Amino acid sequence: MVLRLEARREPSTLMVFASPAIAVVTTLVVGAALFTLLGYDGIGAVMKIFVEPLFNPYRWQDLLVKAAPLAMIALGLSIGFRANVWNIGAEGQYVVGGLAGTGVALLTYEMSGYWILPAMILAGILGGMAYAAVPAVLKTRFSVNEILSSLMLNYVALQLLYYLTRGPWKDPEGFNFPQTVLFTDWQTLPKVVPGTLIHLGVPIAGVLALVIWFLVVRTVAGFQMRVFGMAPMAARYGGFQESRTVWTAMLIGGGLAGLAGVLEAAGPFGQMTPGFPTGYGYTAIIVAFLGRLHPFGILMAALVLALTYVGGESAQTAIRLPSAAVGVFQAMMLFFLLAADVLVRYRVVNRTTARSQRVSSEPATRNTERAA
Amino acid sequence: MLPRIELLGITKRFPGVLANDAISFAVQPGEIHALLGENGAGKSTLVKIIYGVLQADSGQITFDGREAQVGSPREARALGIGMVFQHFSLFEAMTVLENIALGMDHPPARRQLEAEVRRVLDSYNLALDPHRDVHTLSVGERQRIEIVRALLQKPKLLIMDEPTSVLTPQEVEELFKTLRQLASEGCSILYISHKLEEIKALCDRATIMRGGRVVATCDPAKETARSMAEMMIGGNLKDIEGRDGRTVGQVRFTVENLSVPGEPPFGTSLNDISFEVSAGEIFGIAGVAGNGQNELLAALSGEQRRGMRGRIVIDGRDITDTGVTGRRRAGLSSVPEERNGHAAVPGMSLAENAILSARTRKALAAKGLLRRSAAREFASSVISAFSVKATGARGMAGSLSGGNLQKYVMGREIMQEPAVLLVAQPTWGVDAGAASFIRQAMVDLAASGSAIVLISQDLDELLALSDRIAVINEGHLSAAMDIATVSIEELGLLMGGVHGKKKPASAAPAEGITHHGA
Question: Which chain regions cross the lipid bilayer (chain A) (predicted)?
């Protein structure tokens, strides 16, 4: 038996949906095997990370809270990815968004009013956009590859965070811990379900999915993005400008990452600390692709990746899995997804059987030809 | 006499198509044998099987009387089969000699190779300098590299795949001389083409394919181009109506001193191009591929405006400084040469492809929102008016055949009732039925008062449709000539880069050789 890839005549619709599922299942199997080989309880790890949180109602709210920022960032990135604009800098835009919101919070610390939280959110969105504008300028003016520039700016954002929390923004009464003051009630995201962790960011992520869906499917701007991604020459022929596409993609991606940042700061964190970035900006890339760049797929994928965060925490304590294990599982998922995507355009055939079929059908075709 | 190659019942099936259905024919030693058929008739598949690129599902090939298993191109070359592909595989930045060496299975030492190359060049009278860089060569010269490559293997059968589609008439004559000499030395030639006049002039016998089958074998000298065309398409050819007696109105489209720098490294710069086209007129632009046709279309449509100088006026309105959308609004439509990925997005539905270029003139988008039902309606009307074979407005553009997609693209532009239509290679790779439909549609559009600019490499098409014709060569456009008085020789010389009528005809190829050595 020799397995071989054969091009399909048309991309398989079934595989478009099946390949994320294949990727998740393969990740579980290979992950279990890998950690068993490393001397851990591999099956236990998979159960702990991917299965247990699902059967523990108390963990569901955790899932939603982790999924919300992932979904928000991924929704923004998906717009750019559709247009072949590769913004890898969501992590930095998320951090700068959080910092911008924190800046407003520190300025309004002594004040009260319902306007404060919206002002912080606005600042967060603008902060993320401004940070994404840097690679956009470099790309449109100087043709600098946005993958590199946006990625490198992530490290700049981290240093900015460290400087602010250890320097000018450090809480004077915080026993020299590198963190800001705790936000006031006016500056904290309200809970939508009282008595749980579920904050306003969760429904916002759901609404954003609808908005992004509308933008992609129903507007000229979304159309432009899709055409640029599929056929750049046709986009120019259609009268669309590349620089505008890059700008739209970067600003939406940066804006939503910034929004996710400020909501995290004003929600679960309630202050700014050096531990603020948790890799959401990178994980969201996996979310976007696992969700097939489709808004509703992204919501689903965000929940799957949120599992790895929630389950990963308990696996660390329960079976002493290293914290890097979560990253390994996430990376495997993207890896297997990209691999499984081959099946959208190709199918696996067994070469030996294909050949024997051909041999056996040969006399038959000859006979029919003669008959004809 | 044993045939050089004989095919018996060659059958090849791809998923969903029977590309070759029990093909049988033979080519004699020293014979120039035409393989004739429309796109999709199965010619390429058959040739790939002979050259070992593909394997037949069933059937048998005999070469010089012995059964042959051609498992790969290397085995084909070992048997004595050479092939010159339609698309050359050459490295632009390397010399002729380096390119030849790279294409060989066992290249000899450099000096020895050069001696062999020079011998082949001399004995077939081919003008080519082995030390020139490929990017400085004309298309005809590049083809000679491929021919030399094939001849170095001393083939007994040479396959030529659509060799003349990129050549000037003079270059075609040169090529035919070489092929006739080869044949007189006993080499068989399998000549693939759909250009009937050439086949009549060159070939001893023709095998005609349609729908994967051999439908006829004939002596081209005894047939007319029309009778062969009808065998090829399996029906009667329709004449274009309304070509004669057109009335030309006032000027609708003026281009003055247009210059655009070429994209580095190998793009062609446009140099001081001026012409005007009137209502009801078809203005033809002839030229060998790569002489600035794509650049001209992109500059006129507004897709490439960087560094542009000059003036473009439509119906008295200066549109020089407007972009694609503004020019469309002013009444300019364009159809670029490449359908897939330029004029249309293969992965989108026909309705979405309607939005791509018709959204301003047909109001398929308003206030930033797509009007999807209006787009579907417009797409459906194009599909029915241009008899596009498609599953409907929701069907994917990429699922259409070349001819049908081209009909759709042409219909989409024509039904926007443009003041000016720019078209490049409208019937390139399109079946004969669709091609005559498209030509008729252009004639009808002109009759309704539009001005049409037709850029094509197909001289027959240009002569059949245009009222006036000019030639583009290395980014220069010649003066416009009346179609009634122009001669093919004159066009050919202009295409080859000879400007002005005083220079002797032989100047064209000579220029090429002396360049380096002198």
Answer: 21-43, 63-81, 93-109, 115-134, 146-165, 197-223, 244-263, 283-309, 321-340
